[in-house]
Amino acid sequence: MSEAVSLLKCVKMNDFSGIPGVEQLLQKSVIRTLISQFSRPLVISVVREELDTIRQEVRTGRSLPDEQEIISRIAATLSKLNDLTTKPVINATGVILHTNLGRAPLGSTAVQAIADCAGGYSSLEFDLANGSRRWRNTHLHELFRRYLNVEDSLVVNNNAAAVMLVLSALARRKNVVIARNQMVEIGGGFRIPEILAQSGAHLMEIGTTNRVNLDDYRAAVESGGALILHVHPSNFKITGFTEEPGLDEIARLAHEKGVPLVHDLGSGALLDTAIFGLAHEPTVQESLAAGADIVCFSGDKLLGGPQAGIILGKSRYLEKIKKFPLARIVRADKMLICGLEATILTYLKDQALLEVPVWKMIAARSTDLRLRVDQWIKEIGAGSAEASQSTVGGGSLPEEVLPTWVLSLIVKKPDMLARILRRQSPAVIPRIQEGKVLFDPRTVFTEQDEILVKMIIRSLKEYRQKYERTT
Ligand SMILES: *Cc1c(COP(=O)(O)O)cnc(C)c1O
Asked: Are 276 and 402 in contact (CB under 8 A)?
């Protein structure tokens, strides 16, 4: 376009006469093909949006694109629609329970169970033996009873909902005793004092930030405390001059006084993390054995199953909880139930260390991880192996690390390389530390090794072309 013409276009700002009409565009063969793929209403809405944008551009002095360009912009917008969905990524961060990346990946039996029940009808609330209706938690309860010997159970949508439901059902308009060192925020806006207020319970704080003793609990219960809430400080540590009675001592006091002890465990480990060199995360079994009347925990943290809130404990309290109207509002859906049943069954069969990805990742040995890193380096032809640390994440085991080996790439602009890696399909999410781009094999499934290497090679090539031409 000559300068004179573009100048003329500038002068004739707000002249929209050259912009094609919607109907005119809809007749074009490219657009007609798009209509057959994306539906007429969707294409029309994108066409209108694009024409609005162009009018806006013309108003600000930009030149009018020709029809061909308008059509290709419409096609590009439509083809990007698939980007609107949640997509699989390769987690090379070394954070096992990564909240932004969907927390626990499920084991293959759980995935299969969900696929089987999601795509068709199921016996969710139907008793196949006698053709009658049954409760949707029946099977899960039978699995929990066999595995943990609990009187009763209820599974809801997530653990935040579980805590809210338990407090609402058992302590509305009553006093809930909680130690000041447990007034936690677990992230995502879940703050214990706020949840308590929402549930209609009154807060009765005892002790100090670092110390609380059994007499504090006794005094609170004797002056009207109707429920003792114990919250596992899952994402932080208080060290130094601290004191806290054992859960068994609190339970004994609670039972002596006839008030329930509710334990929000957070992570809900069923296996001992200490076997793998981590700190000991309190297990569900220990909490029940100590005498907690109600125990709540997540399905998608250390349990390694689908998102869920699991409530276990004494029938006399669970009956009230199940009948409370909020229980219906936070009830578990069929996919959660199918996935959780398969996950718990894995534990019951003592196959969790082989089947549940979270535990396989925790159990992975650094010598084996090193071999994978060496293989990656060989195939990529760049980078070096470095000793590093993986974390469990997901608000559990704060400050605890697992020794690992990582592939380390040293580049001038690590953020740019990370951005290119995120644009791959599947996207690769590395860890950036001290100006290096690190890839931790602990959270990469072995069957992803090949595609990961391919994505890194491709990204490095693009990165070098754009940012480090000289090297
Ligand atoms: C994670 C956590 C929750 C919330 O569980 P979600 O399943 O994420 O809803 C509640 N309490 C504690 C102590 C936790 O660690």
From this structure: yes
Q: Ligand 1 atom 5: the closest Cα is on which residue?
A: 159
Nearest CA to ligand 1 atom 13: 266
Return the H-helix or E-strand segment holding 367: helix 366-380
Distance 187 CA to ligand 1 centre (A): 8
Which pair of tokens denotes residue 5?
A: 């013409």
- What DSSP character marks residue 191? B
CATH number of the domain at 89-97+359-470, please? 3.90.1150.180
Region 438-466: mean pLDDT is 97
pLDDT tens, residue by residue, 262-298? 999 999 899 999 999 999 999 999 999 999 999 999 9
Per-domain boundaries in the chain: 2-82, 89-97+359-470, 108-355
Q: CATH classification of 108-355 is 3.30.70.100, yes or no?
A: no
Predicted local confidence at residue 471, as pLDDT: 47
pTM: 0.91
Choose the residue to mutate in 186, 198, 302, 330 for probing ligand 1, maximizing ligand atoms within 8 Å of C-beta. 186
User: Which residues is 261 bridged to in the sheet?
Assistant: 228
CA of 267 to the centre of ligand 1 (A): 7
